[in-house]
Amino acid sequence: MSAPTPADAPIPGARPAVLPDPPGGSRALAVWSIGVAVYFVAVIFRTSLGVAGLDAAERFHVSASALSTFSLLQLLVYAGMQVPVGLMVDRLGTKKVLTLGVTLFTLGQLGFALAPSYGTALAARALLGCGDAMTFISVLRLGTRWFPPHRGPLMAQLAGLVGMAGNLVSTLVLAPVLHGIGWVPAFAGSSVLGLVVLVPLLLFLRDHPEGHEPAPAARPGFAFVRSQIGESWREPGTRLGLWVHFTTQFPAMVFLLLWGMPFLIESQGLDRSTAGGLLTLIVASNMVLGLVYGQVLGRRPTARIPLALGTVAVTALLWGAVLAASGDRAPMWLLVTLCLVLGSCGPASMIGFDFARPANPPERQGTASGLTNMGGFMASMTTLLAVGVLLDATGDDYRIAFCSVFVLEALGVTQILRLRGRVQRREREQEQERAAALTGGPVLPAQAAEGSPVTA
Q1: What is the mean pLDDT of residues 412-422?
Q2: How many CB atoms lie within 10 A of CB 104?
Q3: Residue 31 falls within a domain, yes or no?
């Protein structure tokens, strides 16, 4: 006869019914801030090309489509790494993945500074994109590990806000430094920031609070990878999260990452200082609206779909108004309004994670976040390439080139409308499962964890 099992011992093969919520507090904020600082630097490096697009075209003697390849390759690597990075975070933990990310994006920024040719510069941007890909998912993981669930939307929005602050540094600091001291000193000097954030990361960052260690991950292998991806993707919330991210993020990303500055200077006839001010306005608007969206979503989860679709509608309206303005140039008030509205794209894209996060158990959070995060970057890659090709084909007609934005927005809205009913039903099922677990009702934990509806 076997020995009696303690009442609190885990049942073999079953997940714990309910894990305690993380405590939050000052220590959680300190640890989370280290991860966010890494993401802040990654965004500075990612968006540095956005203020140096014309300089890069002159330095490497390339056309518009070749120039777009810089950002396209960087985003291709970023998007392609999202699922592998999510699996790495689930398997290895946040600290190891962030450490590797800092190393790679710092080497990429330094390599871009010293690149003697177009091909070498492309390789450096790919390396940078690989390291950058490891940051945001890791920061999201820190938020879910250190803060209670009701803080999730706000922490995600705050992380996005800090990322936009990195974009602000690129616009306000790197741009004048670049034109003051030159290409190599500006980009090589900025790479030192990678070392600055690496030190506290190695010394102080922890994956989770004491007593909140997640269940051990399965052994790595094809079966584990297939299971993580398949179970995450089967959740309607993961798929809806991807399409929300796809549809909302890319208009501002395309504008800030590469084509905004050339459009404002070459098509709208603005000087570099005024154009930089408008890009800064997007970032400032993003930071303000990020706080607003985070507060609204934390209190009213039902506002997720209306906020996402409303953002897409207003963005499309303003984008169309600028392109349809009489003559070749839109009035300044319309450009200012467009930039203010583009600032809502980043906060709206965070809504995607608010669908994926509750749909997946803790051990799949990284994978689900990686799948969701692919959305906006796939849309951004497609649009970056389409704009570059159309500019070359039409003799730099930005009005035609930027119409590609509407095609992707229409695709994304169609998918959001198709999936929203499934997600609402699935969330009701999961809420019933959690309530039954808390009250000791008949629940099948393994079945619930796999995303299958629990039946009597």
Answers
A1: 95
A2: 21
A3: yes
What percent of the chain has a predicted confidence (pLDDT) above 90?
46
Question: Where would I find the H helices in 115-191?
Answer: 118-132, 136-146, 152-169, 175-181, 183-190
CATH of residue 383's domain is 1.20.1250.20
Residue 93 has φ and ψ, to the nearest 5°, of 100, 165
CA distance linking residue 116 with residue 221, whole number of Å: 40
Q: How many domains does the chain have?
A: 1
Q: How far is CA 129 from CA 104, 133, 311, 373, in A?
A: 8, 6, 27, 14
329 CB-near residues (< 8 Å, 6+ apart): 267, 268, 269
Distance CA 438, CA 456 (A): 17
DSSP letter (8 states) at residue 422: H
For 206-239, how does the pLDDT look when each residue is reduced to its tens digit (9 = 90+)?
887 876 666 655 556 678 788 889 999 999 999 9
The contacts of residue 218 (CB under 8 Å, 6+ apart) are: 224, 227
Would residue 115 count as lying in a domain?
Answer: yes
Please report whether residue 107 resides in a domain.
yes
| Integer Cα distance of 233 and 419 in angstroms | 13
Note down the domain range covering 192.
26-207+228-433
Residue 381 lies in a domain: yes
DSSP letter for each residue of 341-374: HHTTHHHHHTHHHHHHHHHS-GGGHHHHHHHHHH
Name the residue among 342, 322, 347 with its Cα closest to residue 332.
322
- What's the rounded Cα separation, in Å, for the pair 404 and 390? 9
Find, among 367, 250, 253, 241, the residue nearest to 304 by Cα: 241
CA separation (Å) from 305 to 243, 247, 302, 350?
Answer: 11, 12, 7, 12
Cα gap 438→291, rounded to integer Å: 32
